[in-house]
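Margin note from the TA: students keep mixing up input and output lines. Inputs are the sequences; the output is the structure of the whole complex. Example:
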Amino acid sequence: ELKVEQNPLFLSMQEGKNYTIYCNYSTTSDRLYWYRQDPGKSLESLFVLLSNGAVKQEGRLMASLDTKARLSTLHITAAVHDLSATYFCAVDGSSNTGKLIFGQGTTLQVKP
Amino acid sequence: DVKVTQSSRYLVKRTGEKVFLECVQDMDHENMFWYRQDPGLGLRLIYFSYDVKMKEKGDIPEGYSVSREKKERFSLILESASTNQTSMYLCASSLFHRGQSPLHFGNGTRLTVT
């Protein structure tokens, strides 16, 4: 059974600092997704990582995928308050069917 | 833009009631999914469907059923609501492209069972 684990689950950081969110998964998959959820809102797709070594960047967020280590990272550079949200990683659960298994989510709070 | 619409934003139902949650997408997506979201547990898959009249169980199907009579509509049914089904329910859709397409989510239905 595929399990997806994120850490940390909660992250409070100062504006301008850098930090990384980790996403580990238990079985082989080469498709990993990152989503953002603002309070009271639905999930918004951030990145789709489709192969080993894939790296995607948008603004202050950069995501990478290491399929051999079964690890993805979401790196935050020089955090700003607008990045405060909950971030989820998700892995394609079986045979690349599009059925995603989600991590628990990491709630990021960026303080001025 | 893909639009996934869930019929209700908030619902309050009594224990034992039959509850219908409706979801409609407007982008001709083949895949549709129902998740529930609970604090500390992330999103858990209840049911999904790859085509009209097709359905497959997710990780937590007990107490739920689904219906997909038309491609754009996917309904989640709670046959006899219980308090442990109080949760946020999220519908999503995606293209059937060997899993490369991200899920597009609706705004969610917050269900309270009393």
